[in-house]
Specification:
about 140 residues, five-stranded antiparallel beta sheet
Length: about 140
């Protein structure tokens, strides 16, 4: 693809980092990939209520290199899983579709996800859509 950089000389980015604070998010994806150094990583993708996308990197390659560093990796994944409301043995892919809150800090001109907690908003309640007088199991 060829582009003329001069056409964009007066263009400025409209990206503004989110102010530091807690944000309700949903996990939209967990991507297994390689870092720029060729190390295994997982990227947890979050989306805020107004559509802003955030991500957090989990350096899964550390689990093979150093048991003490792996404790940190496992702790971060555990914090995300706990904040998602999960218990027991899970995989990071089980985070997808779950809601939680993330603490965002500003790192230069970017946002950095620093902490995780359960969402303080209550989940939507199931509604009874069965007509009155329907069988008890349908109500």
């Amino acid at each position: 693809m060829k582009i003329d950089i001069d056409e964009f000389a007066n263009e400025t980015s409209t990206f503004e980092p989110l102010p530091a604070g807690w944000y309700p998010v949903r996990v939209t994806d967990v991507e297994k990939t390689l870092s720029s150094k060729g190390d295994d990583i997982e990227i947890v993708h979050f989306t805020t209520e107004n559509g802003r996308r955030l991500r957090h990197y989990i350096a899964t390659y550390l689990e093979r290199s150093d048991p003490k560093k792996f404790e940190t990796v496992e702790k971060i994944a555990g914090q995300i899983g706990k904040a998602c409301g999960l218990t027991g043995q899970v995989e990071t892919k089980d985070f997808i579709g779950r809601s939680l809150e993330v603490r965002v800090e500003i790192d230069g001109s970017y946002n950095k996800v620093k902490s995780f907690r359960r969402s303080v908003q209550s989940p939507p309640q199931a509604t009874n859509s069965a007509p009155k007088g329907a069988a008890p199991w349908a109500q």
